[in-house]
C-alpha cells in the first residue's frame, strides 16, 4: 500500500466508519447521520480500498469489526475526539465568557470576594458557572466541558494542571445537642452506630467517608443522600444524622458542632484546568488573578 493514498481518506469516511462500528448496522448509521445507506456503503468501500485492508465483516444481518478494524477504530475515535475538542477550544477563545466549575461549599466561602475583586479589575469578562461537587467538576474539566474549576484537589493527576490555594479539613458534623458534641476528635468506633446524611458521589466527601472513616469491612449507615449542601446541613442541624463536610463551611454554624477525625482529613482546595488545553487570554487572566489574590491573602494572614 502506498502511504500517499492516505491523502485521499476523507473525514466523512471516518465519521461513517465510527458510526457503523457503534451501531453495528449500515441502516441505523444512515438514519443516525441522516444520509442514504448506499452513501455510507460506498464511502466505507472506498475507505477500505484506500487503506488496503478490510475493516468490517459484513453479513446480511450484522456488521462487525475485523481485528485490523478494531485497531483502526480505537485510534480514529481518539483522533476525532481530539479534533472535536480542538474545534470547541478555538471557538471559545476570547468570547468574554469563562466556563468555570464551582462546588457549593467552596463557592459560598471563597468565591464572592474573588469575584468582586476580579470584576473591579476586569469588567468585560463574565463567568458561566456550573455548580456541582468536586468529583463532577473534575470530570467536566477532563472532558473539555469546563475550562477550569475550583475543586478539592486530588493528590495527583495525569490530566489536570492544579494550583493549590487554601488548606482545610473534612470534619464530622454533629447536632449541638448530640452525645458526641463535646468530643475533641472522633474515630471509627465512635461512628459505627450513627446515622449519616451524606452528599452524593459527585462530591469528594462521600468517598472520603467510606475510605477514611470506616474500615472496608464496615459500611456506614447512610440514611439519606442529597446533592444539595444546604439540605444536608439543615438535616444535621435538626438532629437527623451526622455528616462529613468542610470545616470552613460549618465551623460558625450555631446548631452544628464540627469535630475533626483523630487522623485528620486534610484537603487542598485549588484551581484546576486540563493539561494541554489551549487557554484563552480571558482564562489566563482569570488564573493569574486568582493566583495573585490568594497569594496576597496568605501574606496578609501572616502579618
TrEMBL record:
Pfam families in alphabetical order: HTH_1, LysR_substrate
Question: Belongs to which family?
Answer: Belongs to the LysR transcriptional regulatory family.
Would I find Transmembrane helix among this entry's keywords?
Answer: no
GO cellular component assignments: cytosol
Matching entries from InterPro entries are given as:
HTH-type_LysR_regulators (IPR050950), LysR_HTH_N (IPR000847), LysR_subst-bd (IPR005119), WH-like_DNA-bd_sf (IPR036388), WH_DNA-bd_sf (IPR036390)
Name the record gives this protein? LysR family transcriptional regulator
| Annotated keywords | DNA-binding, Transcription, Transcription regulation
Family annotation (SUPFAM superfamilies): Periplasmic binding protein-like II, Winged helix' DNA-binding domain
| CDD domains listed in its UniProt record | PBP2_LTTR_substrate (cd05466)
- Superkingdom: Bacteria
What is the organism of origin for this protein? Robertmurraya kyonggiensis
Which GO MF terms does the UniProt record name? Answer: DNA binding; DNA-binding transcription factor activity
Residue ranges of every copy of the HTH lysR-type domain listed in the record: 9-66
